[in-house]
UniProtKB/TrEMBL annotation:
Keyword Membrane: yes
Pfam families the UniProt entry points to: P2X_receptor
Membrane topology listed for this record: Multi-pass membrane protein
Similarity field: Belongs to the P2X receptor family.
Alphabetical UniProt keywords: Ion channel, Ion transport, Ligand-gated ion channel, Membrane, Receptor, Transmembrane, Transmembrane helix, Transport
Function, in words: Receptor for ATP that acts as a ligand-gated ion channel.
InterPro entries noted in UniProt: P2X_extracellular_dom_sf, P2X_purnocptor, P2X_receptor
PANTHER family for this protein: P2X PURINOCEPTOR, P2X PURINOCEPTOR 7
Main location: membrane
Localization annotation: Endomembrane system; Membrane
Name of this chain's protein: P2X purinoceptor
Native source species: Phrynosoma platyrhinos (Desert horned lizard)
């Protein structure tokens, strides 16, 4: 089974809905400046989806430290930086958790605490843990449109997850709209077994799986994706191991006096990774039929065992009535009582999986498959000048009956050369239009 090559996967968040949902939520007294900052932030971070990579990031929580300038200031009171005298601090010391390089002085952080002074962007970030509830938890109502094109090289087949009859106003729903490529972020989290507003605080990574399971045969074409969702990061990691998903970045500005100023942003958010899986296949129809045939043989054997002593009376009465043909012994793989023994295993096919009446006893079989006037009509339709008294007519009627059966049961002329007719039906047709010498070519394997 060859793997599909994802040609392109593009996720685009919907802006309009994004801002509408923010308006609905109401910003609850946040400052104009804060709001502007957020919108700037949203634009910059959402903008990254333009890179065309198979993941997108949605900011759900932020810590913003504005107006930082380069200078000296007290370090944030992490354990290593708390001091009482200059002796606790060391000039030039640097720690991965600290914000800058120590100057060697111990200074006042607030009214109760002293920390080592650092050369850094000052003032340093003053909040340690992510705000609860998450600042941008309304991102739950954002939607994302995922476009995924795939190609199966072996079959030279290309398709995409957006069907021509795609309705732009749909929203994915596992039961009601399983093919809709627009997903509400809150729904994605829910389907992954998570709660959006909880994950929004610390951030996380969610996988969106697009599974392509395709059958590329003309007669049974099926190639549409199913979607799956799961959390990829480990939410159980303890606090010390930095749970969730976040990163810092800064925006730099120049003040009138030429001094550099920056706004530091610690962004928590959910990264959505799009993972594409898939298989495609074309059944070799013959193989499929062999499979069905052998499966049926197995059923036949199975019911044979059940039948043996207890039901012998029933069998006997049937024989007494002359229902089963006395000249042909019932093969073990037959469940309808009308099949005849066959040498080749692919001809050991019954019309039934379980015991019951034979399809040849049905009224439709009579009308569609072996009714002579019907078959003559079909033959004349194909060849209006056909001589209905020709010696070869039986053979033509017989083959026409096989085709009628296939067309009736399989519905496709494509399968004419490949479909296997059950033994009972084959013999019913042969008996109705026998060959003069009693010889039949049997099923010709096309491979
Ligand atoms: Zn049978
Ligand atoms: Zn049958």
């Amino acid at each position: 089974m060859p793997l599909p090559k994802p040609l392109a996967t593009v996720a685009s968040l919907r802006w309009r809905r994004l801002f509408r949902s923010r308006d609905q939520q109401g910003d609850g007294g946040r400052s104009q400046r804060e709001r502007q900052g957020e919108q700037r932030l949203l634009k910059s971070v959402y903008g990254s989806e333009a890179d065309g990579i198979d993941s997108f990031f949605v900011v759900t929580n932020i810590i913003m430290t504005e107006n930082q300038i380069q200078g000296v200031c007290p370090e944030f009171p992490i354990a290593k930086a708390v001091c009482s005298t200059d002796r606790s601090c060391m000039e030039g010391r640097m720690d991965p958790q600290s914000n800058g390089i120590q100057t060697g002085k111990c200074v006042k952080y607030n009214t109760t605490l002293k920390t080592c002074e650092v050369k850094a962007w000052c003032p340093v970030e003053s909040i340690k843990s992510a705000p609860v509830p998450a600042t941008l938890r309304s991102a739950e109502n954002f939607t994302v449109l995922i476009k995924n094109n795939i190609h199966f090289p072996k079959f030279n087949y290309t398709t995409r997850n957006i069907s021509p009859e795609f309705n732009i106003s749909c929203t994915y729903n596992k039961r009601m709209a399983a093919y809709c490529p627009i997903f509400r972020l809150g729904d994605i989290l829910q389907l992954a077994g998570e709660n959006f507003s909880e994950v929004a605080v610390q951030g996380g990574i969610i996988g969106i799986e697009i599974n392509w399971d395709c059958i590329l045969d003309k007669w049974l074409h099926r190639c549409r994706p199913t979607y799956g969702f799961r959390r990829l990061d480990d939410k159980k990691t303890n606090e010390a191991l930095y749970p969730g998903y976040n990163f810092r970045y800064a925006r730099y500005y120049k003040q009138a006096n030429g001094k550099e100023e920056r706004t530091l942003i610690k962004a928590y958010g959910i990264r959505f990774d799009i993972l594409v899986f898939g298989t495609a296949g074309q059944f070799d129809f013959f193989e499929l039929l062999v499979y069905i045939g052998s499966a049926l043989s197995y059923f036949g054997l199975h019911s044979d065992k059940v039948r043996s002593p207890g039901n012998s009376q029933e069998l006997q009465s049937l024989q007494n009535k002359g229902v089963t043909s006395s000249s042909h012994e019932r093969p073990s793989w037959c469940s309808c009582g009308k099949c005849r023994p066959a040498q080749s295993y692919w001809e050991q096919l019954c019309c039934r999986k379980k015991d019951g009446a034979c399809i040849t006893a049905s009224a439709l079989f009579e009308q569609l498959v072996i009714s002579r006037p019907m078959l003559e009509l079909v033959l004349l339709y194909k060849d209006p000048l056909l001589d209905l008294k020709a010696e070869t007519l039986n053979k033509q009627l017989r083959h026409c009956a096989y085709e009628q059966y296939i067309h009736w049961r399989f519905g496709e002329d494509d399968l004419k050369e490949r479909a296997m007719i059950p033994s009972c039906c084959r013999w019913k047709i042969r008996d109705a239009f026998p060959s003069e010498r009693g010889e039949y070519s049997g099923f010709k394997r096309t491979k």
